[in-house]
Write a structure and sequence with these properties.
The chain is globular. It is built from 13 helices and 17 strands. The chain is α/β, with parallel strands linked by helices and 371 residues long. Helix 10 crosses helix 12 and helix 12 packs across helix 13. It folds into 2 domains: 121 residues, Rossmann fold, CATH 3.40.50; 223 residues, Alpha-Beta Complex (Spore Coat Polysaccharide Biosynthesis Protein SpsA, Chain A). The mean pLDDT is 96. 39% of the residues lie in helices and 17% in strands. The strands form 4 sheets. A 7-stranded mixed sheet has the order 9-8-7-10-15-12-16. The protein starts with a helix and ends with a strand. Strand 1, helix 2 and strand 2 form a beta-alpha-beta unit.
C-alpha cells in the first residue's frame, strides 16, 4: 500500500473496529475499509442517539454511545463525520471513556490517503498502474522554466489558524473580485480577459479562466486557500525536468456510484444537462462520462497541475461545455446549489483526464487540508 502505513497497520491489528457516524461519510469509510485492499470487519456503527438515524447500515447494527461504552470501550473508534462535528464527537467519546479514537473527517489527510490505497487496488484490478508524484516522476529531456500553482482565495473565505508560509511556491489569486470592493491579494480574476462576475456559479473556475487567458507558464495549476498539494521545493524542481503531464489529487469515493451521490447532494437534472452538453459539443467524451457516472471515484476540487499545452486544451474544452450548461440551467435560488457549475466541473475534470489517461502521464499527489 502506498499511503498511511502506520494507520493501516493500526487498522489491521485492531480486534474491534467501530465507525462513529451513520451518515454519508461513515457509509463511505465503511464501504472502503470492508473492500480490498483492507477487507476489514467492522463491528458496528455508533451514534450519540438513535433519533434520525437508521437502526441498521450496510447490514451492521447502529448502536448508541451509551449502549457501547461498557461493551466496546477498548475498540478502535473511527470518527467518520464532517469536520464541523469532529470536536463535539471527540469530546463525547472522551467523556464516555473511549480513548482509542481515530478522526476521519471528510477532508482529513488520513482519510484521503486511505482512499488512495483503495483506488490503487481498483486500478490494479483494471490492469492499470496508479502513479504518484513521489514515486513515478521520471527525469525526461524537458526543461520547464516556470511552474505556477495558484492558490485561489475569496473575500468570503473562512479564517484559518494555520500558517501557510510553508507553500512559498503558490501564487495568490482572488476569485470573484468583480463582486466585491474587498481586496485580499494582488492578483485578481477581474483584470484582463475574465469571467469574474460568474463566481457565484463558477466558484474557483473564474480564477482558472483568468489563469488560462493571462498566464503562460510551462506548468500551471490551481489549489485552494484550505486545500493544497502536498509538495515541496524539491518535487517542484524535479517536475520541471520530468515526464509528468498532469498532477491530480487522490480521488473522492462515491458509493454506490458517482451519479447517485451527485443526485443525493445536488440537482440531478443538471447532471443530465452535462451529459447533453457532452453529446452536443464533445461526443467522443460521452462514453467516458457514462463510465464515470457508474464508477465509484472522481477527481475533486477542480485541483490539478498540467503542462501548458494540456492546461490550455482542457480549458478550451471545458468552458464551452459549462456555458452550454449555464445557458440551460440558469441560476438556482439556493446559494449552495447555485454553485452547480463548479460541482459539475469537478466531474468534467475527471471525464477529461480519464479519457486521456492512456496518452498522458497522470500522477496523483496528496493534499493538505486546513480547517
Amino acid at each position: 500500500m502506498l499511503y498511511a502505513s502506520e494507520t493501516v497497520e493500526k487498522l489491521m491489528n485492531s480486534q474491534n473496529i467501530i465507525i462513529y457516524g451513520a451518515r454519508i461519510v461513515a457509509k463511505e469509510v465503511a464501504e472502503c475499509l470492508m473492500r480490498e485492499p483492507y477487507n476489514l470487519k467492522i463491528k458496528c456503527f455508533m451514534v450519540s442517539g438513535m433519533e434520525g438515524n437508521p437502526s441498521n447500515l450496510l447490514g451492521l447494527p447502529v448502536i448508541t454511545v451509551e449502549h457501547g461504552k461498557n461493551k466496546y470501550r477498548e475498540a478502535l473508534i473511527l470518527v467518520a463525520a464532517l469536520e464541523r462535528y469532529q470536536k463535539e464527537i471527540l469530546d463525547t467519546l472522551k467523556q464516555n471513556g473511549f480513548h482509542n479514537v481515530l478522526p476521519l473527517g471528510f477532508e482529513s489527510d488520513i482519510w484521503s490517503e486511505l482512499r488512495g490505497n483503495f483506488v490503487e487496488s481498483l486500478f490494479a484490478k483494471n490492469g492499470k498502474k496508479y502513479m504518484t508524484l513521489e514515486n513515478d516522476m521520471c527525469a525526461a529531456d524537458r526543461h520547464a522554466e516556470t511552474v505556477h500553482i495558484y492558490q485561489v482565495k475569496c473575500h468570503a473565505d473562512k479564517p484559518i489558524s494555520q500558517d501557510l508560509a510553508q507553500y512559498p511556491w503558490e501564487t495568490l489569486i482572488q476569485a470573484g473580485a468583480a463582486l466585491t470592493g474587498i481586496s485580499v491579494c494582488d492578483i485578481k480574476d477581474n483584470s484582463g480577459e475574465n469571467i469574474s462576475r460568474k463566481n457565484k456559479e463558477y466558484c474557483e473556475l473564474t480564477a482558472l479562466y483568468w489563469i488560462w487567458k493571462n498566464d503562460k507558464s510551462d506548468y500551471t495549476g490551481i489549489c485552494h486557500y484550505r486545500r493544497h498539494f502536498a509538495l515541496d521545493l524539491d518535487l517542484i524542481e524535479r517536475l520541471k525536468h520530468s515526464d509528468v503531464d498532469v498532477v491530480v489529487t487522490i480521488p473522492i469515493l462515491n458509493f454506490p456510484n458517482v451519479r447517485s451521490m451527485y443526485a443525493n447532494d445536488h440537482i440531478e437534472s443538471d447532471w443530465d444537462t452535462m451529459l447533453e452538453a457532452l453529446k452536443a459539443l464533445q461526443p467522443e467524451y460521452y462514453q467516458t462520462a457514462l463510465q464515470l457516472q457508474k464508477g465509484v471515484y472522481y477527481y475533486a476540487y477542480n485541483m490539478f497541475i498540467a503542462r501548458r499545452e494540456i492546461f490550455d486544451s482542457y480549458c478550451g474544452w471545458l468552458f464551452p461545455i459549462l456555458q452550454y450548461i449555464e445557458d440551460r440551467c440558469g441560476k438556482k435560488e439556493d446559494a449552495y446549489q447555485n454553485r452547480y457549475i463548479g460541482f459539475l466541473a469537478e466531474r468534467l475534470l475527471s471525464v477529461y483526464f480519464m479519457h486521456h489517461s492512456s496518452e498522458w502521464k497522470i500522477v496523483h499527489a496528496r493534499k493538505n487540508f486546513y480547517s
